[in-house]
TrEMBL record:
Its cofactor is Zn(2+); Co(2+); Mg(2+). InterPro entries: M29_Exopeptidase, M29_N-terminal, Peptidase_M29. The keyword Metal-binding applies. The keyword Protease applies. Keywords: Aminopeptidase, Hydrolase, Metal-binding, Metalloprotease, Protease. GO terms for molecular function: aminopeptidase activity; metal ion binding; metallopeptidase activity. This is Peptidase M29 aminopeptidase II. One of its GO terms (biological process) is proteolysis. It comes from Ruminococcus albus (strain ATCC 27210 / DSM 20455 / JCM 14654 / NCDO 2250 / 7). Belongs to the peptidase M29 family.
Amino acid sequence: MSISKDLLKKYAHLIVCTGANVQKGQTVQLTAAVEQHEFAALVTEECYKAGARKVNMNWTSDMKNRLDFLYAEQEVLAEVLPWEEAKMKQMVDDLPCRIFIVSDDPDSLGGIDPKKISAVTQSRTAVFKPYRNAIEGKHQWVIAAHPLEKWARKCFPDAEDAVDRLWEAILKTVRVSEDNDPVAEWDAHMKNIKSKAAWLNEQGFSSLEYKSSNGTDFRVELIPDAAWEGAGDVNPLNGAAYIPNIPTEEVFTSPYAGRCDGTLVAVKPLSWNSQLIEDFSITFKDGKAVSCKAAKGQELLEQMIKMDERACMLGEVALVPKESPVNQCGFLFYETLFDENACCHCALGIGFKEVLPDGDDLSVEEAMERGINDSVIHVDFMVGADDLSIDGIRPDGTRTAIFRNGTWA
């Protein structure tokens, strides 16, 4: 790999100090693939330099995960062992700063029965969800990326230098280069995103209408007091500002669960549970996905929508202009962290209660009563066609163009 160690250190510093914003005395939970051990060491060192009390590691392996699904029984894989649940309980007690370094092979579970994957995922997430609910809005976290060979080969199948090319693209999208100050770049970037969110909040829109020549024709109702937000957030327990996704280009909110109609046509493949869903659309009626079509991954898409009784409802709408640095890279990343930041997207599943004025103080049930969806999944899919138009509609019926031809109007 030709990426210099100094550049990797600069990236690791950005992840720890701007993304997660690790505070003195905090415990950090770092998740990374076993092949990433060298970069994980750089991130760990940056955490300790920032004052971390302890860095705990969660190692992952695509190969091991595939072998589990190939050979182990579904009931065995679905079981959550006592030590696994004890780790989740400890997380609730510690409220660690969590850092995820993703590098998944998009095809690592190719050929595995989608029903088996969905059943295992559904069973395990049902056990883990109460613990995740307990820490929501009470800790800092960030997802960033590190390319590995199989992911890079998926993006650049004919390139001998596939890993280097993916590294260059990642560093471009996260605004890290040899001769810049990425922290300053991100400060300016976040100010721009916040200005877009502020404008949307001033408009008082009650619904959005999407139209595109590819067949997208969709209308969704917004929660009256839900705010549009940029990608930055603040831990209310210690006041630490953090950025959950690096990269990020979105302005987002949670729509009113169960109040949308029409069809959304995806413009990019979706990688879910390490399998691909391609050329697909989802049709909603009375707020629920009632049908879907996919050229590839039809059964997987159907399983996803049925993960629980509210997986068929939307939890997020997000606006991303086609000028996004991710989109300008000109290729599909096969990783939602990047592809969702290439263009406008929506998400099936759980919404964000923090978009409500008092959201951090609400229980899951209270947030649901206010219109926030709840589910075991949150799956983003991209709908931002080059000719996408989005109108904001106010309660009195007046409307204002938000997007035209895939970008801010």
